[in-house]
Design goal:
The chain is mainly α and 65 residues long. It is built from three helices and no strands. The chain has one domain.
């Protein structure tokens, strides 16, 4: 497992925490941002790509953080 994959795992965890916080505070924007962070983390873990490259690709597909 390379360092980008480890960072992906951490990104998933932080995204899930942010998503849950959005649920607790009834903040839809925070909840959506947490879900996007978790998605980026999952892709990063599986592919080993850099976070910036993944985010750039998602933005090119019409999905942005």
């Amino acid at each position: 497992m390379n360092s980008d994959q480890m960072k992906g795992k951490f990104k998933q965890l932080s995204g899930e925490i942010k998503r849950k916080w959005g649920q607790v505070t009834d903040d839809d924007l925070t909840q959506a941002q947490g879900s996007m962070e978790k998605l980026v983390g999952k892709i990063q873990e599986r592919s080993g790509d850099r976070r910036e490259a993944i985010e750039k690709w998602l933005k090119s597909q019409g999905m942005s953080e």
